[in-house]
Predict the 3D structure of the following.
Amino acid sequence: MKKACRVLVVDDSSTMRKLIRHGLGRDPRLRVVGEAGTARQARELVKTLEPDIMTLDVEMPGMDGLEFLSRLMIARPMPVVMVSSLTGRGSDAAIRALSLGAMECIEKPRFGTAQETFSQLADLLVTLSAAKPSTRPGRSPASREREYDPPFQWNGRFLLIGASTGGVDALETIFSAFPNDAPPTLVTQHMPAPFLASFAERLNSNMCPNIRLASDGDVLTQGNILIAPGGRYHLRLSHDGAAQVTLWEGPKRNGHRPSVDEMFLSALPVAQRSVAALLTGMGRDGAAGLLQLRSAGARTFAQDAASSIVYGMPRVATEIGAAGEVVPLAQMASALLGACAYQVPMGAGA
């Protein structure tokens, strides 16, 4: 029988710790080995209990969750899942925690949704307990005056990117290398709507292109990256005349809303003008849509296993032949920009 995953629960609320312990205790794959109400307690329990994974609150007395996380990722990198409020500072701080090395953020259990929340959290903890955390330091904001040599020349192709667990770090890595006149880009990232709003704001303040949540009817234009707002909506590419965004209030697909497959499949009529990439994430959302896009003439990419926090979605895409190219995260930006750019002939400008 497989050994149960050892979990450390860190939250300043004793009530919340008890609720999380009780919720996770129903799953035989997990064993809560300790609880901590402060960063100091958590640090000592990490040393003595050697847990496989940690749930961490954002706001705690004394040293907050972000400061503790940044120190933890230097001293003893380990998988961490943020369990945070969806409102105000909680959602913004959770996104910053993902950039510091946390692997996923999930909303705190609420009355009427606790069972669904704990089912999702349990699956996350089991899957992520064996993953290798990202320890890259926070990035410096990209200059909007950054020079590219040779200058980027858009070839008219649209870019569509899907991601899930680990996607915050992956998308920050990719977009930090994008110029201010980047190709028109649509993004579907699995995340609760308030977290997506904080994520879009963070990206827009740090990157060269304009990055924001998509609105229904937005026209795709160069230099703009539009992120699915989530909540009730899937993001689709409409192609009646000018290419534009449609937000559709449909049912979940592959267990997700927004769904990567919904976005990819909407681009089939313009597949030959599309470039699509599937990044790190649990499950298989996006793989089927990527395969259909490739069959219809799109350039398609998948993140490789070594650089994926969770090699789920890109693994399925690779196995079914949906990925035209499998690329490490460090090379993904140049690969995508290259697919969306006119190629400069050898010797040009010499």
